From TrEMBL:
Keyword Amino-acid biosynthesis: no
InterPro entries per UniProt: Cu-oxidase-like_N, Cu-oxidase_2nd, Cu-oxidase_C, Cu-oxidase_fam, Cu_oxidase_Cu_BS, Cupredoxin
Keywords from the UniProt entry: Copper, Metal-binding, Oxidoreductase
Entry superkingdom: Bacteria
Domain Plastocyanin-like span(s) in chain numbering: 78-184, 208-280, 347-450
PANTHER family from the UniProt entry: FI03373P-RELATED, MULTI-COPPER OXIDASE
Protein name according to UniProt: Copper oxidase
Recorded GO MF terms: copper ion binding; oxidoreductase activity
Length: 469
């Protein structure tokens, strides 16, 4: 009861704050070029719209996603009124492909008035395919289509969501999973499942239910890919078996070891892949301690019951796995170092270095540069910071070097934490760097990482109606 009142107060405040949210400029060029100054055809510049996947003879996989409004029936029989779905479900259809495939996805907007896009979260795509309204394309209006085309270069667990008014549209249901199976399976497992944690209206869901059941036989090895499409970190307890964290954000962890009774904190936007064995004739239960939703895996009888799941220690990715030799280390010579202070100011601004989105200067990079970012959380809750178009290596937390080589695309930074991360600028374009608590992004915590010489013909603002959040 008490919790319900707090949720109500929170929702009312959120509605008020969002309603009187940031003033949005009429027109803005996210490449950082001066408005009215025509650069797109001048020499020495390249338009993001022209950066596409080259021709190859990779096997082609085609998909069609229709964004539409309608009532959505949950597995419980309850109906969510006026949900927004891809092909009638939320999450939309799971797109499952093989590493190296050429992916062609036609997005059709049936009736979402303000337009939609698809951003391929965590997937390294060419600039024109990143799905950010007003940066890499215009929002796709009702009756229109847009076709995405890119090569799935990295195996791993990813997801997709609209990046037009993303704080509203993802929450209304415009999300889905994007799974790239490895060409060569490095690990052995019998079952490969993927699920999405998300909120739809007032419902906290796993896929389209609160209690999910997945089949597996005794002794079978299960790979479970967990996508957190919510705005906040979700903590998951694994009951009845030991498990390995084999991948985070689509990047395999070298030297992952078996752990037991540790809560897995999955930041907003992140994906964790875990591997475990089904015990003899017993089920495994995975409990989201934030929502009490559960996933039951296994055909046997009910497994062990453990109380106080909330009191389990948290899994710590900074102290897990073994390092590999790669191109980035603390000793690397960085071409640029930037500090980003993440904060909140009354009544409703989420800021980076004291400014909100359209006042934050872009970080300018050159192809081939090694960039280090220092992320400092001074307030406003946890900020899951997402970078488009790149994977970054996490170097330190609060000054302490990581134990292994962890590459992410989204890093939840808790209050008072300081992380150092680094990435190689190897994908020329215009890329968002923003908080994946999409409410925070909408209220200002969003900026650009732009390559020198890259321009865009698209505009963000009230005039074009492109509002990426
Ligand atoms: Cu945030």
């Amino acid at each position: 009861m008490k919790k319900k009142i707090w949720v109500c107060i929170y929702l009312i405040l959120l509605t008020l704050l969002t309603a009187c949210g940031m003033e949005m400029p009429e027109e803005m060029d996210m490449s950082g070029h001066v408005l009215g100054h025509k650069t797109s055809h001048s020499s020495g510049t390249t338009s993001c719209a022209d950066i596409k996947e080259g021709k190859t003879n990779a096997p082609v996989k085609k998909f069609h996603l229709t964004a539409k409004a309608g009532d959505l029936k949950l597995e419980s029989g309850e109906t969510i009124k006026n949900a927004w779905t891809f092909n009638g479900s939320s999450p939309g259809p799971e797109i499952r492909v093989q590493e190296g495939n050429r992916i062609i996805v036609t997005l059709e907007n049936k009736d979402i008035r303000d337009g939609v896009t698809i951003h391929w979260h965590g997937v390294i795509v060419p600039c024109s395919q990143d799905g950010v309204a007003g940066v890499t394309q215009n929002a796709v209006k009702p009756g229109e289509t847009f076709t995405y085309e890119f090569i799935a270069k990295h195996a791993g667990s990813f997801w997709y969501h609209s990046h037009q008014q993303s704080s509203i549209q993802a929450r209304k249901g415009l999300i889905g999973r994007f799974i790239v199976e490895p060409k060569k399976k490095e690990l052995d497992y019998n079952k490969d499942y993927a699920i999405t944690l998300h909120s739809l209206g007032d419902y906290e869901l796993i896929n389209q239910t609160k209690q999910l059941y997945l089949s597996a036989k005794s002794k079978e090895l299960v790979r479970l890919r967990i996508v957190n499409a919510k705005n906040t970190t979700q903590k998951l307890a694994v009951v009845g078996t030991s498990y390995q964290v084999i991948s985070i954000d689509g990047n395999n962890i070298h030297g992952s070891t078996l752990i037991r009774n540790q809560l897995i904190p999955i930041g907003a936007g992140q994906r964790y892949d875990i591997l475990f064995q089904i015990p003899e004739n017993r089920q495994v239960k995975i409990v989201n301690v934030e929502t009490n939703n559960t996933i039951t895996i296994g055909d046997g009888s009910e497994g062990e019951k453990i109380k106080d799941l909330n009191k389990q220690p948290k899994f710590d990715f900074t102290q897990y796995g073994t390092p590999i030799k790669d191109k980035i280390s603390l000793q690397s010579k960085f071409d640029k170092v930037h500090s980003l202070t993440l904060d909140w100011s009354w009544p409703n601004k989420f800021t980076i270095n004291g400014e909100v989105m359209h006042h934050i200067p872009p970080i300018m990079v050159k192809k081939g540069h090694l960039i280090k970012l220092r992320l400092i959380n001074k307030g406003g809750g946890t900020h899951p910071m997402h970078l488009h178009g790149h994977m970054f290596k996490v170097l330190t937390r609060n000054g302490k070097p990581l134990k292994s080589s962890i590459y992410l695309d989204t890093l939840p930074v808790s209050e008072n934490e300081i992380y150092e991360i680094a990435f190689i600028a190897d994908n020329p374009g215009l890329w968002m760097k923003h908080c994946h608590n999409l409410i925070h992004a909408q209220l200002g915590m969003s900026m650009m990482v732009n390559y020198e010489g890259i321009t865009t013909p698209y505009r963000v603002g009230t005039k074009s109606g492109n509002l990426p959040d």
